[in-house]
Amino acid sequence: MQISKPSISDLLNSRKPGHSLPAGLYTRDDVFEADMEVFFKNQWINIALDCDVPEPGDTYVVDVGKTSLIVLRDDDNQIRVLHNVCRHRGTRILDPGQHMVAKLVCPYHQWTYELSGDLLHAPRMGKDFDTSCRGLKTVNFVSVGGLIYVCLGDNPPADITSLINAMEDRLAPYDIRNAKIAYQMDIIEDGNWKLTMENNRECYHCAGSHPELCVSFIDFRFDTEYENDEEREIALEQQALYNERTQEWEKAGYSSNVVAQLEHCNTNFRTQRLIIGGAGESQTPDATAASKKLMGTMTRKDLGDVHLWGHNCWNHFMGDHAVTATAIPLSSGKTLVRTKWLVNKDAVEGVDYDLDKLTSVWIATTQQDADLVARSQAGVEDPSYIPGPYSDYTEKELDKFAVWYIDLMKASGY
Fold first, then answer.
1. C-alpha–C-alpha distance, residues 109 and 123, integer Å
2. Which secondary-structure segment (H or E) carries 410?
3. What is the tens place of the pLDDT at every residue in 150-184?
4. Fewest CB atoms within 10 Å of the CB: 65, 76, 105, 289?
5. Last residue of a domain, which of 94, 118, 142?
6. CATH code where residue 132 lies
7. Which residues of 386-410 are buried (b: 16+ CB within 10 A; e: fewer)?
8. Are 175 and 296 in contact (CB under 8 A)?
């Protein structure tokens, strides 16, 4: 007798508070399709940076599921996001990646579009053919301090304003909009996108898995529960240092306090200016700055790490450089993680910065995380998997992520 599988609704309702998700929410293809609709179409997602297209004519093509997007800078130096679908017979105009173009020309029948997306020329369609209503379809987008977010749905969530209000002032000194991409790395993790994001939202695993990162990254406890006296003493010292640094940074005009929108919302994010360990300057092998030219208008190397995460991204902004990462689901068991290292637009490799020092910590960390996510995916696919309890001490953010995920799934009719 064949046993029917539980519905998505059944899976959502079976999740026990304080525990990881039921296996099917990580492994099933129908759940993946639902996730793409709910979280990667109808919510704001981070897909690119202003500095991906630094000059007029620069284009950057990103695929999200079956949707292909052209991020470009037009002749008026304005950023636009367009659907990469010719209005003739639907042909993809550009391949994924970066290009420099004067016009957007469909390779199939040479329909030609201005960088505004307006249709300029449609050969052999007749002299009475109306080009005015056949421009490329536009996409809802917003640049948040130089990070480009899009919403592919018809009703973009209004609470993106909370993210904008939190980050525009915080990111202004780094001038991300005019930074330079020094290096990019793509890695495909063999795991569901939720496992990728869960792994990023906790540092329970850091001490045993990320020796390079732990030179500079301090595993700060975001709660007030302690396992033993030693842990309590360390946490209280960290809290005192955070309070001291945050007060000094805020007084100097650098926004630093926690701003979080994690539950009962659409746009999920958290930001805080984190302290850096060791030399205290940057996330490098020795925690000193990798670039002699600081970001934007920065004049200090001791302003910590402005950390920002969303439901498909995480970012670290430091005095000398920034690291940004976006996660784009490819299937129920594969996720593209695209990491970029940013420096001052005038910084010169080999003169102002050494590329290995700039990138080695997060290259190692990203590869280590990919291995952990693959192990997690293999585990949730195992028939013996039973959702386990999150640590009240180090994994509270994961529980909030699970609550947010389930609430939005149910609100979407699942």
1. 8
2. helix 396-411
3. 999 999 999 999 999 999 999 999 999 999 999 99
4. 76
5. 142
6. 2.102.10.10
7. ebeebbebbbbbbbbbbbbbbebbe
8. yes
164 shares a domain with 124: no
Q: Mark whether 174 and 276 lie in a shared domain.
A: yes
Taking the C-alpha atoms of residue 308 and residue 324, their distance in angstroms, rounded to an integer, is 9
pLDDT in tens, 290-306: 999 999 999 999 999 99
Read off the pLDDT of residues 58-100 as tens digits, 9 standing for 90 and up: 999 999 999 999 999 999 999 999 999 999 999 999 999 999 9
* pTM to 2 decimal places: 0.96
316, β-bridge pairs: 307, 323
For the chain, the helix, strand and coil percentages under 3-state DSSP, each to the nearest 5: 30, 25, 45
Q: What angle do CA 259, 260, 264 make, to 5 degrees?
A: 145
Q: What is the DSSP letter of 213?
A: G
Phi-psi region of 403 (alpha: psi -120 to 50; beta: other; left: phi over 0): alpha
User: What region, left, alpha or beta, does residue 296 occupy, with left being phi > 0 and alpha being psi -120 to 50 degrees?
Assistant: left
